[in-house]
Amino acid sequence: MNIALTHLQRLEAESIHIFREVAASFSKPVMLYSVGKDSSVLMHLAMKAFYPAKPPFPFLHVDTTWKFREMIAFRDQMAQKLGFDLLVHVNEDGVRDNINPFDHGSNTHTHVMKTVALRQALDKYGFDAAFGGARRDEEKSRAKERIFSFRNAQHAWDPKNQRPEMWKIFNTRIAPGESIRVFPLSNWTELDIWQYILQENIPIVPLYFAKERPVVERDGMLIMKDDDRMQLRPGETVENRLVRFRTLGCYPLTGAIESDADTLEAIVGEMLTARTSERQGRLIDRDEAGSMEKKKREGYF
Amino acid sequence: MRHILAKSLAPTDSIRDYMAAQEKKSLLRFLTCGSVDDGKSTLIGRLLSDTKQIFEDQLAALERDSRKHGTTGDDVDFALLVDGLEAEREQGITIDVAYRFFATPKRKFIVADTPGHEQYTRNMATGASTADLAIVLIDARQGVLRQTRRHSIIASLLGIRHIVLAVNKIDLVGFDKTVFDSIVADYTDFAKGLGFASIMPIPMSARFGDNVTSQSERTAWYSGPSLIEHLETVSVDEAAVELPFRFPVQYVNRPNLDFRGFAGTIASGTISQGDEVVVAKSGRASRVKRIVAHGGDLEQAIAGQAITLVLEDEVEVSRGNMLVSPDARPQVADQFAANIVWFDEQALLPGRSYILRTETDQVSATVTDLKYRVNVNDFAHEAAKSLDLNEVGVCNLSTRAPIAFDPFAENRTTGAFILIDRISNATVGAGMILHSLRRAENIHWQSLDVGKRGRSDLKNQRPAVFWFTGLSGSGKSTIANLFERKLFASGRHTYILDGDNVRHGLNRDLGFTDADRVENIRRVAEVAKLMADAGLIVIVSFISPFSAERRMARELMGEGEFVEVFVDTPFEECARRDPKGLYARALSGEIKNFTGVDSPYEAPENAEIHLETLGRSPQEMAEALEHWLNERDIAEEQYDNGGGI
Predict the structure, then answer these.
(1) A200–chain B Cβ distance below 8 A for any pair
(2) What is the Cα–Cα distance from A68 to B454, expressed in whole angstroms?
(3) CA-CA distance, A145 to A136, in Å (whole number)?
(4) What is the DSSP code string of B116-148?
(5) Any idea of the CA torsion for B495, B500, B506, B508, to the nearest 10 degrees?
(6) Which range, of A23-37, B158-172, B376-390, B462-476, averages the lowest pLDDT?
(7) What is the distance between the alpha carbons of residues B584 and A120, in angstroms, rounded to a whole number?
(8) pLDDT confidence tier of residue B523, bands split at 50, 70 and 90
(9) Which residues of A touch B100 (CB under 8 A)?
(10) How many A-B residue pairs are in contact by the CB < 8 A criterion?
């Protein structure tokens, strides 16, 4: 018999294995659902891993209150369609202090509304394992992270002292208060994600497809004016341009690209000729050198 | 400003064609290893750059970083692409493994860039454990170094069968063929015993790209392939599909009473609907009724696939067991020999209990015998009492319950395990099973008709093990003695195991090193267990300084039988009392390895009974213990009467 698994089949099997390992070894896992394309793939794999049962854990969305409105609509629609248990957490302290990306900058906003909010949610529910959709090809500190990534009771990552991770034998043992972040998509690349979405016909937020949208040029990026909270600076105008997003986060921090790719095939075609990385559209990675590692040490995903 | 991507070039059909071609690509996982500064990270940077995997924004950031942290003058320092941690960039070294991805028209690659420093060997092992091939880099000016040998031995132990010997920095020796030939001869001679199926030597300059993606004119004397050509074509098929069927059960999927599926990843072989399978540990047989997958049942599945099996019969299978081919079964044993690579600052100690984890199984395990340590320079087998950080050795292990496995040489998935520290939960070692030990196959448990319950009922008591721990001179023996007299007076059957007394007989061959202390406690715990099994109330009075061994003793005993008694007397008070004159001698350096002086005492955190001795008389504390025992027996009687049997 001369049969071998394809590249995507191998990646899919590895991710499913990781999901099951967590379900079998932890008492209270949760999946972080960020509504983007990687989350869509993660959710699809979770459904496959436990079929015919539903995934034996809830999905948690940490809502910064600055996500694109289409993301929130898509989130609620998916929760209803797939029937999973959706938890939404907002850092109410941040809301009370009106923390926002325009007045406080991306660093403070992300720290308060994402990193701190995530820590609050994990503590509130007492989750001992949390799935995230991060991939190693995204960013160079992620390229260094284990699939089962240990966090101490303060949710901090210690990059200089990671547990060895041998074969597919994962050390899932933790003391009370400690937790593990689990990354089933560690070995997937951006291209793999798109190929898999195409192959499996996985629903994604429409913002990934090109469409005329109201955008403002600011700090070298095209920012979509998603609601009235975005105030125009002198000299700025709102233009309708044919754009799409390669990655999704908080709308004031996520740059659009001009593109006419309005089908999955066209998106893959565009990717093959791309000259810039996907995180180029993310303001938070550029604030300072090593900024992702710093955030991760503080408990960011 | 550049927001504009090239317009989507290809029409939909050609994208579909492209995707179909991508689908057929195979995947090669490899690592780069070798000594510090041999150019591992630079090589990966070069591979990524020459295969067009670096985007414009990443290149701009790299140029910025090169000016700040770079070590290559005005040129781009490719090492900064992979050395992603701040500490790595500041120190200019690789600390942990980085995973990178690239593709050529023929293959997809996942590459693990691993650290060269000896202290980070465990991170190198992490990268090697999932790789099919290793690129061993050698600095042409340095030749084969200690780390070259260590990494090659670990790669071989972890099952890597294909090596690329990259003789790097060949530009710095004037592209000299004789230097290359001599290094290749040295390495091939050294690697004779490592069982590699192929060793491909290539002269290379990672920094300037010679022989990386295409043959270099500067090494006209070299006629072999470039690195990329070799990586694209080398055949590393382990043919896991050809091996007997192995399915480690990972998760029992039971959404309702009508469905019971065993989920897992096929480790080797193939399985079809209707095939007979056997449960490895029990030998019970059944047939595959369904191979369940999202989107429809499968008729057949092969090694590497993550599936869910439904069996024809209601057989007992849980996580940690394996479904296997009836014709070629794995071994099931609780004693076996294995290669061990040690990862922890605290040395491996024979006799200490660790948690052993295979892909899905987890049991307590002890190294019963450290047969030898392997010298990484010349493979010499050296006698050793412990394995230190980054050392490699051959051990005999004994597990609390049998596990199912194949020798690692036959099956890389079912022959591997890790060892976990019971207290810190750190991954402290990796093991590759060699073979089961004969005695495990031949010694079976005798099932006896008279049981513990019967024996203790006859004595009209419940067995217990009171485990006294505390510093020398804390009062353990005095309190234990009074306690036993009280029990004896009330008609209980007891026995005291005293540290000093046992060292005159059973343990007279043991000293006071950490390794011997561990063995000392292991033997006493086993004896206490036998006595409890005989129905006795056992009082163990041992310093027992390490929490790992006390926990091991606790887990040996039946539910509720182990009672840890912490005899808590401050060090200063013990040294003041000094009933045997030992503290004076230890503090003057005359006695070595004395607990509390130059050997640690790990105080219990959750002892059942905590006796703070200052200001309390031994008599009073012995009464407290007796009271505690009476309370327990009353509570259990109520439970027995109430619960009924």
Answers:
(1) no
(2) 71
(3) 8
(4) -SGGGHHHHHHHHHT-SEEEEEEETTT-S-HHH
(5) -170
(6) B376-390
(7) 54
(8) very high
(9) 136-137, 143
(10) 227
Residues belonging to chain A: 301
> B530, exposed or middle or buried, with CB in 10 Å at 0-12, 13-18, 19+?
exposed
Quickly state the pLDDT bin for B238 (edges 50, 70, 90).
low
What is the CATH topology of the domain spanning B240-324?
Elongation Factor Tu (Ef-tu); domain 3 (2.40.30)
Q: Is residue A296 predicted with pLDDT exceeding 90? A: no
CATH 3.40.1130.10 fits B454-643, yes or no: no
What pTM did the predictor assign?
0.80
Selected from 1.20.1250.20, 2.60.120.560, 3.40.50.300, 3.90.1300.10, the CATH number assigned to the domain covering B22-233 reads: 3.40.50.300
**The CATH number of domain A7-192+290-297 is 3.40.50.620:** yes
For A159, the closest of B3, B26, B96 (CB atoms) is B96
Reported as type and span, the H/E element at residue A292 is: helix A291-297
Structure token pair of residue B630: 């009476």
Question: Judging by beta carbons within 10 Å of its beta carbon (0-12, 13-18, 19+), is residue B10 exposed, middle or buried?
Answer: middle
Interface of A with B in 218-257 (CB under 8 A): 220-222, 243, 255-257
Q: Is residue B91 within a helix (H) or strand (E), and if so which, with residue range?
A: helix B86-91
Tokens of B382: 């050296």
Residue range B331-439, CATH number: 2.40.30.10
Residue B201 dihedral angles phi and psi, to the nearest 5° = -85, 135
Top pLDDT among B311 and B53 is at: B311
Angle at B476 between CA B452 and CA B490, to 5 degrees: 50
Cβ-contact B299, B272 below 8 angstroms: yes
Cβ-count burial A271-285 (b if 16+ within 10 Å, e if not): beebebbbbbbbbbb
The partner residues of A244 in beta bridges, in order of sequence, read A257
On the question of pLDDT at B536 being above 90, the answer is: yes
Top mean-pLDDT range of A183-192, B30-39, B453-462:
A183-192
Q: Which of B384, B378, B289 is nearest to B340 (CA)?
A: B384
